[in-house]
Input
Amino acid sequence: MYWIYLSPHFDDVALSCGGLLWEQAQAGDPVSIWTVCAGSVPTGELSPFAKELHMRWQADQDAAAQRRSEDLRSCQRLGAGYLHFTFPDCIYRHDPHTGEFLYSTEESLNGPLQPADTHNIVFLEEEIKRLIPTEVVLVCPLSLGNHVDHQLTRLATQGLGYPLWYYQDYPYVLRCKDMLEYMEQAGWKSQCFPISPQGLVAWQDSIAAHASQISTFWMDALEMRQAVSEYLEQNNGIQLWRKPKLSTLAYQ
Output
């Protein structure tokens, strides 16, 4: 089967389930990561918040170019193909009428999608539909942690009408265990995929390839490797989820 994983940002699939992609590729299944917010940084002045993030990432004006290079190395380590959409990261998106930045604070990243941004759900859905092959297994984020780009990716993917698997957004899932419990009660089904020691190393290496993003969650790459190892041990593998066919209680 051809597996396509939808990644809101360059590192999300590597973070959440990189070891699973490596195992699938080793088993002979073609796998690809389609990154949604992979577009170049728009010309013009950045918001103070975006500038702050660029400094943290040690990136220049076109941080997306740097992150695309990191993604190529990460995908190569996993044996995965890739596709980069031209959609800009939320920190660069404007209100088309007022010109104001839609997400200009840390808090706004994990809030609701702004009304001026919701039309992008349909736009993204149409782009995926235009590019997607037949006979494919689609995997998208659960959007645990509520990041607006994760929400956008999930909503657009669900609109396609394909049967979906969902991955747990790591490391956001670490503070959303109650949501997983609720999903089980609502009839969601999960499947745990075992990851070999070699798969763990490939997973860690694929995250390390996104060097600009390590400081977002950890002090350094060594701490990241330890955290991913502990996460795998706690879960005995990588879990994917499927929504119940009929359930009014299902987490939407």
